[in-house]
UniProtKB/TrEMBL annotation:
Coiled-coil region list: none
Domain EAL: 22-272
Organism: Aliirhizobium cellulosilyticum
Name of protein: Diguanylate cyclase (GGDEF)-like protein
Length: 274
């Protein structure tokens, strides 16, 4: 971005650049050999009271021969807008379940779903089929969804989530606190877990508003009888403030970044478990 350039020109060229960039990624995704170019890394989720590893969140990685490594924060939304995210979910879920099948029986797997994975019966049947064929116990699987997934078709998405819940899967509300859902709406969903977004965790010991939000989100999850994972913990100061508020499950660079499959297995096998 050339920030020194004038208003309208800057906007137009930035906008054009953005559209070209998206188009490039979309076309590379459509041509990609997804089975080979996509991989999955695993970030530990820790119970600080051990400390002990509870499980891992699967996070997508894409290494494109044309474009190099692209972040999921970039390519997942583009795949969603292009309506092709289902073709990514398939190999990603399959790979994540294959890796997790080799872990000890107490470890859980979290997997991120998009709105498109939940907005038709066919896409849910695809998920159910993959989970069943993998042999992985659905009771050890947490599916992460964001509030934005419900923005489009609340009825259909709720039905899909209920189907997955009946199969035994846990349902985690990801990026909790950043969406606009009313509590009544949330209450209608068969949720098992909240994940508090990193934006409230960053420097919460220095930011009274963040501190209060985390405090009330933890209280709400306790009231609802749900587990709560706190995301993006980077410093000892943040951890101390979170544990003082009663938080127990955390995820973040302070403990570990997302790890390669063989590193994750080793991490979980360490004597302390974290
Ligand atoms: P998310 O689900 O909220 O995942 C958490 C993101 O925070 C991950 O980024 C993770 O690497 C990063 N993170 C973890 N600990 C820390 C920390 O201590 N500090 C900071 N600053 N960041 C931390 P990542 O891997 O780049 O993924 C970005 C987003 O892409 C995810 O956000 C999720 O929305 C999406 N995504 C990733 N994999 C998948 C997937 O397989 N399917 C779908 N539908 N979405 C995915
Ligand atoms: Ca997530
Ligand atoms: Ca999140
Ligand atoms: Ca997020």
């Amino acid at each position: 971005k050339k920030k020194q350039r004038g208003g309208a020109v800057l906007f137009d060229s930035d906008h054009e650049y953005q559209i070209n960039f998206e188009a490039k990624i979309e076309s590379a995704l459509k041509q990609a050999d997804l089975e080979n170019e996509l991989s999955v890394v695993f970030q530990p989720i820790i119970d600080v009271r051990g400390p002990q590893t509870i499980g891992f969140e699967a996070l997508a990685r894409w290494d494109s021969p044309q474009l190099g490594k692209i972040s999921p924060a970039c390519f997942i939304p583009i795949a969603e807008r292009a309506g092709i995210v289902g073709s990514l979910t398939k190999p990603l879920l399959w790979k994540a379940l294959a890796a997790a099948s080799l872990w000890g029986p107490s470890l859980r797997l979290s997997f991120n779903l998009s709105a498109h994975d939940l907005n038709s019966n066919d896409s849910v049947l695809m998920l159910v089929g993959i989970i069943q064929r993998s042999g992985f116990d659905p009771k050890r699987l947490d599916l992460e969804i964001t509030e934005t997934a419900f923005a489009h078709d609340f009825e259909q998405v709720t039905q899909s989530v209920e189907t997955l819940r009946r199969l035994g899967c846990g349902i985690s509300l990801d990026d909790f606190g950043t969406g606009y859902s009313s509590l009544t709406r949330l209450h209608a969903l068969p949720l098992t877990k909240f994940k508090i977004d990193r934006s409230f965790v960053k420097d919460l010991h220095l930011r009274p508003s963040s501190y209060k939000i985390v405090k009330s989100l933890l209280a709400l999850s306790a009231d609802m009888g749900l587990d709560c994972v706190i995301e993006g913990v980077e410093t000892e100061e943040e951890l101390a403030a979170l544990t003082a508020l009663g938080g127990t499950s955390v995820q973040g660079y302070l403990f570990a970044p997302p790890l390669l499959e063989h590193e994750a297995a080793k991490f979980a096998a360490e004597p302390s478990g974290a």
